[in-house]
Structure formats: C-alpha cells, structure tokens
Amino acid sequence: MFDIIINVAFCVSSLLTVLILLLPSQYDPRPPNSGETSSRPKTSVQILVLGDIGHSPRMQYHALSIAKNGGKVVIIGYKESDPHPDLISHPNISIVPIQPPPAILQTKNKLLFLIYGPLKVLFQVVCLWRCLAYTAPPSRWLLVQNPPSIPSLAVASLSCFLRQTRLVIDWHNFGYSILALKLGPTHPLVRISLMYEKLLCKYAFAHFCVTDAMRSVLQRDFQLQAPILPLHDRPASHFSPIPDPATRIDFLKQLPEAKDMSSSIEKGNTRVLVSSTSWTPDEDFSVLIEALLQYSKLATSNPNIPGILAIITGKGPQKEMYLQRIASLQSAGKLKKITIRTVWLSMSDYAKLLASASLGVSLHTSSSGVDLPMKVVDMFGAGLPVVGWSRFKAWPELVTEGVNGMGFGCADELSKQLVELFGDSKKLETLRVGAQKESTRRWDDEWNPIAGKLLGLS
Asked: Which domains, from first to last, does the chain contain?
C-alpha cells in the first residue's frame, strides 16, 4: 500500500513539474533599471487578428500608431495577403503568422459545418495557444479583434491570466450575429456563441468599439463594468483626395480596367463607380446588380444620362456566383451603357482608385445594426462621396445625408440616386466637397486621446 502511495505521489509531482515547466513566461511589470530606460519601449502590445492581417486595416492602424508612439508591437494573424508596407518595415513591429486551418475544414454546407466547425476550432486553439503563449514574447497588453470571438476570447483570456497581461477587446461587431447569418438567429449554436461572448468579454481590462451605438449595447446587454471607449474608424494617411481632375484621369488611363474607357470618362460620358466587397451574405451584391439593370434601361433611352464603369474590388466566397450572373446579363444585352469589372489592387493603387472615382457604393448591411463599414471610411479619406445601405442604427454616425453621401434601402432607391447624381454633376460635386471635408478627420486624431491614453503612449 505504501509503495502505491509513493508511486502515485511521484506521478503527480512529475506531472505538476512538467506543467510548471510548460507554463508560458510572464510579463515583468517592474520598472526598468536606470541603464535600460533609454532602450526599453514605452509599452509592449500583442495584437491578435484571427483573420488575414492584410485585410484588417483597423488592427494594422493600431499597430502603426503604437509603434509610432514608442511602443513595441507583435501582431499575430494569418498572412494571406501583403500587410501595409509600413507595418513590414517598421523596426518596432514584428509579425507572428498563425498556421491556417486545413482546406478540408472549410465548408459552406450547414450540416458539414456542424461537423467540421469544432475540428476547425480545436485546430485554431492549438495554433493560437502556441503563438500567444510561447512564440510571442510576454507583453503588457493584448489587443484582440472581435469577431471572431471563438476561440479567440477564450485563448486570449487564459494567456493574459498566465502571463500577467492586460486584455483589451476591440469590438468591430458581435461574433454571434455573424454566426447567425450562416445558421439563423434561433440556432442553438448562435445562442451558445452569445453566452460565450458575454462571459469571456468580462475578463477584459478595457474595451474599444467602433460606434456609440455599440457601446450602448455592450453596456445594456453585456453589462460590462470595464471602461468601454468608442474609437471611431478614421482613414490612414495613404488615403487622401486628388483635387486635380487631370491627375485623376491620368491614373485611370494607367489602370488596366479603366484605360480603354478613359477617353469617355474624360469627356464626361462615363462615370466611375467603385465598390469594395467581401462577397459575403452580409453584403448583398444583387442590390447593386438590380440597380444597374434599372439604370441601364433609363440610360439607354436618355442620352443625357452617362454610362457607368463599375469597378469592384475584393475577394470572397460568393464572387464566382455573381460573376456568372453578370456575364449572363451582359451576354443578354441587359447591361447597356454599363461595364462591370473586378480587380485586386495594392493598397496604394486602391487608395488612388478611390480618389479618382466619381462615386463609392457600400453594400454593408450590418448583422448587428451597430457596426460600420470600414470601406466608407476609406472612401471619405480619399474624398470620395458615398451611397450606401443605410437601414441600420449606426449609419448616421458615419454619413451625413446629402452632405457627404446618401443612404438607400433597396435597389430602386439606389438606381434613382445613381441617376440623380450622375445626371446632375452639381449635386455630385456638392457631395464630393463634403467628402473631402470629412477626409480631414484622421486616425491619429481619434486614436491618440483614446487608445494612446489607455496604453500610456499619449
């Protein structure tokens, strides 16, 4: 009996020793010695993006602002596209890539999603834990993009507890509302996701959110006690207006998707419409297609209505479906005076395209009603007026109706707006002036007194 007790005690003590040895290193909050002060950064921040870093502009802007103000940044996420050039070249910023899930775990089928989903989450848990707890050095702060909340919030909370790191959640939307687009709002997994999100977010030291409306929801429905700081999206410096029309035309002449129509654009016979989309269910691209069909009928019978070159940027799961529909409509002759082209551009060329276009279109419908499309912020940064889906609560926080943009709620309304604006250059120019005024409101002006103050950088 005594031998059994000894063996059990040995096994338990060995297991505890292994667990202790495997614990991640902790952040040292003690102030530096006098000789280290000059070389040590003001603060250190991990930024977690459970998505493509290159497609997460807000989190990239966070990283650049922290580094610019003297902080050390490790940004953790998928490297599926090129991040902002300044992110790569800045000496205070390093990137820790997350291994993407195997392709076999990606599915659009609802039944297979219920099987593959948990396996994908388990794979992400392992990869996230390795990156947060071991690959990345311990930091004072961990800033997490939400959504996705599963499994980000759970892994991040445990890592912060063990490493003495302060957790900050940056709310772009709600994870459960995104899941509801796939499974339906009454699905049990959506309810579980909501409970999970409400529970895990309470462990955060502070919260950022993209709108005042979202802050109200977090206070009322999530009952958060930690500080909730609205931090509105603003454009980065590479988005800026091009006041000279000749310079705008010169860029379009060099753009492969527009150069063959540059003469018509220069004469005013064709307007350039730009829309950036992720080709997902929360951006119903059929609304724009239907509006262009209606516009085509009117423009064909009225020579005073110009043609449209619609340039669509972005990647996503529904792209091929819509491209097939567009090709079918074009071959049937239903898109006369309408040219639709898709393109994938570098960040620099995308910014120039926005500044050179006539009008921007946002199809973001908002799963929660309290988030806002970053694409509109970028368009305003480039001085581009916007028409966008406006049937959600937070829309007025971003667009001032008739000043820098207009809102619509159906294809008919969008079609009428296109006819109104493209048929009357004075109205379009009025909106452009408003958008250019909006472009003066920049990211650093918003970030420094809110996020910078919280992180001890301003």
From this structure: 44-234+444-454 (3.40.50.2000), 245-441 (3.40.50.2000)
